[in-house]
Design goal:
mainly beta; 56% strand
Length: 138
C-alpha cells in the first residue's frame, strides 16, 4: 500500500556564502527537482526501430516563494559564486527515515517580482553539479 505525503512539509536547504547549510523552506511555496538521463542513439542501417544507450545524468532545482530580506541576502550572496554550494531536498519533510536528496549545485538565476495586488515573490534556479545522493534524514 502506498504511503502518500502532503507537500506542506517539503524542505529545501542550501548553503549560504559561508558554506553553512540553511533551511529556506519557510519562504517557499514550490520546489521542482527534475532529474534527466541523456541517451545516445545507436541505431544502425537495416534496423526497423531506434536503439539507444544511457549517457549522463543531469538535474536542476527550481524554487519559488514569498520574498524575505534574510533569504534575499542569502541568495544574493551565492549568485555567481564560483564554488558550488550544498543542497538538501526533502519532498516529504525532514522526519527521520523520510527521503532526502542531496548534492552540490550552483545558483544560476534569482528573480524578484512585485505586483500591486500580491506579496513580493521570488524564484531561483539551481544547476546540480555531480551526482545526486538519495538517502534518508537521520
Amino acid at each position: 500500500m502506498p504511503t502518500f505525503r502532503h507537500g506542506k512539509s517539503t524542505a529545501f536547504k542550501v548553503d549560504n556564502s559561508s558554506g553553512t547549510l540553511t533551511d529556506i523552506s519557510n519562504t517557499l511555496t514550490d520546489v521542482t527537482f527534475p532529474q534527466t538521463i541523456e541517451t545516445a542513439e545507436t541505431t544502425a542501417f537495416g534496423s526497423s526501430a531506434k536503439t539507444y544507450i544511457v549517457g549522463l545524468t543531469d538535474s536542476t532545482i527550481s524554487v519559488s516563494g514569498t520574498w524575505d530580506a534574510t533569504v534575499d541576502a542569502h541568495l544574493a550572496g551565492i549568485l555567481g559564486q564560483t564554488a558550488s554550494v550544498s543542497f538538501e531536498y526533502g519532498p516529504e519533510g525532514t522526519t527521520s527515515t523520510y527521503i532526502k536528496y542531496s548534492g552540490e549545485c550552483y545558483l544560476t538565476s534569482y528573480e524578484k517580482s512585485g505586483s500591486v495586488g500580491d506579496a513580493v515573490k521570488y524564484s531561483a534556479e539551481f544547476q546540480v553539479t555531480g551526482a545526486v545522493t538519495r538517502g534518508t534524514w537521520s
